[in-house]
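Per your request, structure below.
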């Protein structure tokens, strides 16, 4: 099978690794799986959605290309290119009436000489003129040449927007004979999705992303497994634990493969308490200020759990890591079994010092709150890198690589990064910003919820919430105000005991905030946290707004309606 990958050739083995996982039986493909339109596996990608939403025309281009997730978007597409793409779609004239075209004729138009045609449902589209304008390159678009783009749109549900479909129609040249559909035998890449708890607040179905309801976050220090937020970038892979292997290799290491049994029996079991938080948590507050590309999270894309598994440092030392190899490698890369249509897997990395310093707590976890990992949370093995943003905690772990370079995956290079409020997609330089590792200090009010009615007769307002800081920093104070910051109430804190610089878990807090004497029928509650390095939250979203909507740690605000009694 031909592999078309841009950038460094070192990415090729990573994708092949995923293909091998399917062929070896580790990852199970759906029974009706077909390689028609797919590259190798029936798993795929997701929140590349922000690039998809850069502009409707650019989205059409990418959808027409029908690429794997990290190829689907080119976040560096400029505004000028978007305008050019839109113009291309709008100026292509359609002849009426449209002819009927046989599927065999579409299949024959799979090169520049004869023309490049694709189908969507019963429509036929000539995208030859669009090849050189495609943001991901002509070679990407050629992957769909002569075939249906429906499988790719089935994976990337964000394609199903009317403006995208409208622009695609600008390239239509006909309809398939008899209204037939070339994609009728395509498998649903999301056919292996597990059942989820109905209380989760769903933000997208395919891929599945859901957060914990705010009022359920503060009940206990450990978030119940079924209510823990879910962040998937690709379809959930079906993994056979009996066939599962973890490959460990890289700078200064001997290559080894470990089974699930090996991990459980050859290494000491470790347990830590750690909070995971999506970098985009509280993104919705940023989107209210200015348009944001990404999953629209409220404050529930966070959770705390007790994780058990193998210390990553122990595994690396078992593979030969020593002081010399530590000096040679600067990063530890992780690759999951979740994959796009080209067999390119989700990947991320952390600095190697996070994994090997004395007392390092990075785990290869196989249990969550005393139970085996669920499918959504990375069964059978996932990375738990405490104090580091959720995107680096790779699920369904299949490969570990020590390297001089960080992961070259899209999610490391072009996704989880933050920029100045003045930077937007028409002037962003992705290489100018480092990949996010440690989250900043943040807090949120969970109770009462926004627009709750409160009575003046009570005198005080009971308020509950969470606070968290990355990098092992503990939260030392949470301040709450009901009068726009004129006065503050110091909250009572509750947290898991931890050593200095190893406070991996969040802090839950509660406060009785005096009812302000002066109000206009509504009250705005505000909270802010301070950690043990005396980092504290900024007061305004405007100062931390960024095009990806990540790391929003402005003061959290909740409005209440006042009932006079």
């Amino acid at each position: 099978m031909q592999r078309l990958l841009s950038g460094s050739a070192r990415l090729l083995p990573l994708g092949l690794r995923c293909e091998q996982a399917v062929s070896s039986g580790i990852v199970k493909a759906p029974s009706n799986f077909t390689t028609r339109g797919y590259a190798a596996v029936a798993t795929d990608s997701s929140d590349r959605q922000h690039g998809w939403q850069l502009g409707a025309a650019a989205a059409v281009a990418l959808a027409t290309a029908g690429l794997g997730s990290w190829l689907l978007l080119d976040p560096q597409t400029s505004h000028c290119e978007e305008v050019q793409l839109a113009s291309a779609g709008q100026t292509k004239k359609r002849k009426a009436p449209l002819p009927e075209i046989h599927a065999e004729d579409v299949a024959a138009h799979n090169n520049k000489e004869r023309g490049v045609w694709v189908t969507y449902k019963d429509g036929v589209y000539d995208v030859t003129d669009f090849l050189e304008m495609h943001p991901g390159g002509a070679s990407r678009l050629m992957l769909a040449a002569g075939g249906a783009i429906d499988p790719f749109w089935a994976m990337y549900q964000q394609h199903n927007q009317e403006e995208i479909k409208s622009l695609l129609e600008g390239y239509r040249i006909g309809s398939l004979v008899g209204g037939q559909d070339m994609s009728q035998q395509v498998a649903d890449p999301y056919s292996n999705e597990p059942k989820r708890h109905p209380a989760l607040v769903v933000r997208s179905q395919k891929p599945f992303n859901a957060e914990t309801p705010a009022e359920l976050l503060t009940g206990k220090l450990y978030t119940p497994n079924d209510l823990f937020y879910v962040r998937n970038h690709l379809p959930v892979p079906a993994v056979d634990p009996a066939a599962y292997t973890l490959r460990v290799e890289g700078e200064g290491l001997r290559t080894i493969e470990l089974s699930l049994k090996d991990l459980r029996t050859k290494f000491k079991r470790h347990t830590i308490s750690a909070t995971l938080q999506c970098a985009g948590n509280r993104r919705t507050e940023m989107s209210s200020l200015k348009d944001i590309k990404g999953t629209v999270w409220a404050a529930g894309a966070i959770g705390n759990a007790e994780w058990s598994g193998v210390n990553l440092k122990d595994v690396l030392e078992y593979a030969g890591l020593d002081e010399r190899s530590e000096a040679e490698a600067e990063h530890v890369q992780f690759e999951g079994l979740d994959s796009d249509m080209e067999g390119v897997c989700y990947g991320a990395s952390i600095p190697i010092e996070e994994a090997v310093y004395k007392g390092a707590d990075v785990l290869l976890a196989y249990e969550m709150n005393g139970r085996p990992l669920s499918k959504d949370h990375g069964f059978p093995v996932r990375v738990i890198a405490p104090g580091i943003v959720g995107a680096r905690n790779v699920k369904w772990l299949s490969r570990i690589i020590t390297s001089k370079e960080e992961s070259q995956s899209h999610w490391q290079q072009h996704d989880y990064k933050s920029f100045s409020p003045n930077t937007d997609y028409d002037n962003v330089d992705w290489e100018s910003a480092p990949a996010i590792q440690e989250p900043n200090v943040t807090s949120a009010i969970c109770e009462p919820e926004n627009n709750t009615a409160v009575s003046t007769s009570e005198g005080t307002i009971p308020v509950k919430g969470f606070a968290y800081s990355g990098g092992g920093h503990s939260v030392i104070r949470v301040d709450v105000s009901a009068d726009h910051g004129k006065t503050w109430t110091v909250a009572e804190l509750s947290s898991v005991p931890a050593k200095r610089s190893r406070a991996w878990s969040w802090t839950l807090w509660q406060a009785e905030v005096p009812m302000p004497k002066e109000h206009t029928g509504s009250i705005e509650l505000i909270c802010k946290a301070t950690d043990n390095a005396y980092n504290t939250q900024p007061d305004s979203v405007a100062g931390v707004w960024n095009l990806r909507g990540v790391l929003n740690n402005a003061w959290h605000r909740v409005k209440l309606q006042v009932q006079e009694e």
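The chain has three domains: 45-179, 201-415, 442-563.

Regards,
D.
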